Amino acid sequence: MNTRRVIFGLILSVVFIYLIIWKPHLIDWVRGRIDLTTALFKSPRLDWGQLLNVLSGIKVWPLVVCFLLTPLHVFIRSHRWKLMVEPIGGLRLYDSFSLQMVGYLSNAVLPLKMGELVRAVLLANRLGVSTTASLGTVLLERVVDMVMLLFIILFVSIIFPFLRALADGAVFFALLAVTGLALILYLGLAHNPFSGRIGRLIGSGRPGKLIRHYGEKLAEGFAILRATHHFTVIALESVVIWVIYTLQEILVLLSFNFTSDYPQVAAGPVLAGLVILIINTIGLSLPSAPSSIGTFHAIAIFGLSLFDVPAEPAAGFALVIHALTFSFYLLGGFPFLWREGLRFGQLDKIAPRNNSLRAGTNMKEWG
């Protein structure tokens, strides 16, 4: 694990947590009007009493439904991933669900979304294939999600007046998604992707050989693109997954009475749910501490501020929706962690050592 990236993620989370709680006055400090401690901590951003009042008044039933939708979307993701994995090896639906849950648990306790790499390593060992090939299926899954998010961004941008900074971020995200999709399509559909002009461009030296080696392994994970009979199912399941995500956002909005208390949310609760989903998803891609603590909450508060929701209700929304989803991943992930023959303390040892793993390695070696 890259220590510098971990430290950067932790610092970023701490900064976001600070900005949620306090308003800094650094200009006054620079000008010598106040000392640094006063500049940093004299102006609380949140009224804690008001936040408690907001949390005490929420409706429970939408939160229960929201919580129950989480295992449903994990189940659908598991079936979709099973179809993607099929060209490199047979994976039972229950096994796919198990690895998904271990991946989510790892993301909840490890920084920098390392759960995706943990899931790829575990899949490689289960199927007896290379880690690079299994990682290809995980990357394909994420690029499909990026494309779905791109369509949602394009749809919402027609209706909702995005801020300039948000629009720039959406364009960057769109370019990233299109580039990733183009690369995956090429590797997945080309029978010999590193021949001809591409091969001459890469060269025959050591860097070129490494690119060929890992590129061919990744192409194995993208082999689903040649199994055209699964395209329709994968597309439909992808739509259903993002519909569930949107429903979860809307349900939490309902639990806080945002649809009745704030006119901009009431005017379009579905639009509000989509906008907040977009912002939260992009925010989750930032480097952060485990469970995206701080970054997720700050991004969610920013998203709700676009609909004139004050800081305290927005903070309550962020706390509740984060607790609902990550509590399921934490509590639900442990039984599947044990099923995979792993202990909690082994998770951070899997991803850093993936380059030294060979297909078929016994999980007990990570003791």
Itemize the secondary structure elements and their pairings.
Blueprint: H1 3-21, H2 26-30, H3 36-41, H4 48-56, H5 61-85, H6 93-109, H7 115-127, H8 131-159, H9 164-189, H10 196-202, H11 206-221, H12 231-255, H13 258-261, H14 263-267, H15 269-284, H16 295-305, H17 311-339, H18 347-350
Helix pairs in contact: 1-16, 4-17, 5-6, 5-8, 5-12, 5-17, 6-7, 6-17, 7-8, 8-9, 8-11, 8-15, 12-15, 15-16, 16-17
In short:
The protein has helices at 3-21, 26-30, 36-41, 48-56, 61-85, 93-109, 115-127, 131-159, 164-189, 196-202, 206-221, 231-255, 258-261, 263-267, 269-284, 295-305, 311-339, 347-350.
Structural notes for this entry:
This protein is mainly alpha-helical. The chain folds into two domains: 45 residues, no CATH class; 321 residues, no CATH class. Helices cover 72% and strands 0% of the residues. The chain has 18 helices and no strands. Helix 5 packs across helix 6 and helix 6 crosses helix 17. The chain is globular and about 65 Å long. The protein starts with a helix and ends in a 17-residue tail after the last helix.
Helix count equals 18
Largest sheet: none
What structural category arises from helix and sheet content?
mainly alpha
Note the overall shape. Answer: globular
Query: What is the β-strand count?
Result: 0
Low-confidence stretches: 353-367
Rounded to an integer, what's the Rg over CA atoms?
22 Å
The average pLDDT is 83
Q: Determine the N-to-C terminus distance.
A: 18 Å
Oligomeric assembly:
single chain
> How many domains?
2
The ordered string of helix (H) and strand (E) elements is: HHHHHHHHHHHHHHHHHH
What proportion of the residues form beta strands (DSSP E)? under 5%
Helix content: over 70%
